[in-house]
Design brief:
Blueprint lengths: L2 E8 L2 E10 L6 E5 L6 E2 L3 E2 L4 E2 L1 H4 L10 H17 L24 H39 L1
Antiparallel strand pairs: 1-2, 2-3, 3-4, 5-6
Length: 148
């Protein structure tokens, strides 16, 4: 494994970052080394005074902090976009039911019905959770409003 060094700057402060050539597989891959944990990484993030990896800075992916109903919404929207595309009106509107949306021209009826039924099933799982969340949100609003 060969080690090379690259110099980057943040606010006119120079930082030397090690690049390691990993030849364990058929392709030789070049990795950046995190200056704090010394592990091979594909990405480093620039903070105010240094470059660090995701683990050292404590970053997490947005999906890791989603509630179950938010994850379900994301999945429903993803399936809707796969079926009807981004340009379909109301593709992101959860109040619109997909039961009566038309079949895309290029798709077979059997495939379309399977995909639409899957989306409908997920929507049916989502709405009870959404109703509970809406009730708690608006009950808190009305409770504080009625106390005045």
């Amino acid at each position: 494994m060969g080690i090379r060094y690259v110099t980057f700057s943040i606010n006119d402060n120079l930082h030397q970052i090690a690049l390691k050539l990993d030849n364990r597989s058929a392709s030789n891959k070049l990795y950046i080394t995190c200056p704090y944990c010394q592990k091979q990484r594909q990405h480093l993030y620039a903070i105010k005074t240094a470059y660090v990896c995701r683990k050292c800075i404590g970053l997490h992916y947005p999906s890791q902090s989603e509630r179950s109903n938010e994850r379900l919404i994301r999945r429903i929207r993803k399936l809707r976009i796969q079926l009807w595309g981004y340009d379909w009106p109301d593709v992101n509107n959860m109040f619109k039911n997909v039961r009566y949306w038309p079949k895309p021209k290029w798709m077979r009826w059997k495939t379309f019905e399977q995909k639409r039924n899957k989306i409908t099933e997920l929507e049916n799982r989502y709405w009870p959770m959404a109703v509970v969340q809406i009730k708690t949100t608006f009950n808190e609003y009305f409770m504080t409003d009625s106390k005045k």
